[in-house]
Design a protein that fits this description.
The chain is an alpha/beta fold. 28% of the residues lie in helices and 17% in strands. Helix 1 packs across helix 4 and helix 3 crosses helix 4.
Amino acid sequence: MTIKSDNNRTFLLKQEEIKQQWYLVDAADKILGRMATQIATVLMGKHQPTYTPYVDSGNFVVVINAEKIKLTGNKSLEKMYKTYSGYSNGQKLTPIKTVLANTPDKVVYQAVKRMLPQNRLADQMITKLKVYAGAKHPHQAQNPKVLEV
């Protein structure tokens, strides 16, 4: 004899049930990789009990002070960003020090993007990430909550 009850059903989040929030992360003196994993978790929505893998239930994240992040070990000397044009001899290697000096927001953006799942849903998730090199951002109207990482 089997008894059916509503307690045994798996919860599946629907698109109209999503309640998104805004979070603010101050990247000053934070380690890049550890910060990026926690930001990726919030963007995916895995920190919520209503997480459903095929629904974009994540929240918005605003990162400020991207120019003041920390790198551990020898990453500041050894880490390189690779780009490839598709042509022979078209590979370019750029040291992370150069990228941090010119566009520090790209370093945080790439670190978080590479920690998201590699599928179409990740394209929607990464649009909710807003990264700024300085302390100012234009998202005060959303009243972002401070996220400690």
